[in-house]
Amino acid sequence: MDFSLTEIIEIIKGSNDGIDVERKLQVYFSNKISDMMQVVLESIDDGLAEEYKKQGYRIEKRDFRTIQFLFGKVTFKRRRMKKEAEKALYPLDKEMGFISRETFSPLLLRNIAEIASGTVLRKTAQATALLTPFTISHTKVKAVLDTVGEFQQNYTENHLLDVTKLTEPKEKKNVPFLYIEGDGLMYKEIKKKRGEIHRIQIAEGVEKNGKRTRLIGTHYFSSTDSTEVAWSLVQNYLYLNYDLTNTLVISNSDGGSGYEFDKFNAIVQGCLRHEHVRDTYHVNQKIKQRLNFVPELQSPLKKAIQDHEWEAVEAVLDTADSIIGDEQVAQLEEQIRRLRGYLSRNWEYLTPIYKRGLGEAAHGIGTCESNHRPYSYRVKGQGKYWSKKGLTHVVYVIEGLKNGTLDRAIIEQQPEYKKQVSASYKAALKAAHKKVPHQTHEGVRHGSIPYASRSSSTGNLSAIFSY
What we know:
Elements: H1 5-13, H2 18-54, E1 58-69, E2 72-82, H3 91-96, H4 106-116, H5 121-131, H6 138-160, E3 177-189, E4 193-203, E5 205-209, E6 212-216, E7 219-223, H7 227-241, E8 248-253, H8 261-267, E9 273-278, H9 280-290, H10 298-307, H11 310-323, H12 329-345, H13 373-379, H14 388-403, H15 406-413, H16 423-435, H17 457-466
Parallel strand pairs: 3-8, 8-9
Antiparallel strand pairs: 1-2, 3-4, 4-7, 5-6
């Protein structure tokens, strides 16, 4: 069980190269740690057996169980015990939080799901095999991803959708600014259908780090069902966490279905002030699309919008209209008409932030599109098609990672993973600690020889030992 310096040296001597050395040492250390964990678990089981006997339990049998931890596979023996008129149980499994028939540890489940949320299943299996002492199939990766994704989904719904569980918090945050953005992300469903991930994000501001900035106080919300579900999540989250009485809310969207001004306004009732902005990225995309036949007029139109001068906008569009040739007249006139209508409908929301007297609040919006990337990189491209259920699990794992709630979701949805504090467990740990006595290991000693000068006798001696 103990680490042997001689064994390690023999491994190094018998290896072909640096890569071979590290591979063999990985196996060696993994096996040693697994052996140590086996002794510890069996010692705890011995202590638990004695404690449970005091409660009227008797031993039925003792059998093996194997659990794959991040550091290696551990096979250990534990007792099955029975009490009159009660179901039989394994005290070690119960007190340690080992779920029946689950072969992976909670940390391993979580880490595999995190990798799988950013790359395809086969790559996740490959990465796991390269970086850990065990292998896993891509079908098992899929099962792990679904399990953890369901944990996060249940956690989110329990905390933000189930109104029977919403309670008035003791203290709410008061922030000067709150930024809310929403946008949809399309994906391909099985049987060539089109689905949409409905996304909304909030932030409390930005923080500068040199030339770069990052959002602070963020929280992200997603739904593969509808925008109504996504808005319910946001509304309940704001209710639980913020007092908006003295808060300036700035919302931003492309104005598409489900992301109109009234959707944002409905969830921030009672705020100090609400300003809605039409997303610049989507406005520029609309201009590029409608004026594709006169690209030289795209920049003047953008400037006119930035200056918020409608007469200048009309002048650019009239110029574009006059340039149309005889070919495709009707089609190009329709493009200009639709662009004019789009800008007219959204003119109020196209007022630049700096013209609304909002000062420092100008920074912090327009990031929703870039925050699509963790989702779009995983669910789009490379011929990917998704079932609704499978995509939902991936989305929730990504959301749990971004919000920092994934660990809590796993623990809450599997109460067995919570650290036990029962009297029997404490007594068993104490007994195991006595059974495996502590050994103090003294490391390699380092020292130096003081000397006055390099040419002195002690200086020469020190130089000899330094080689």
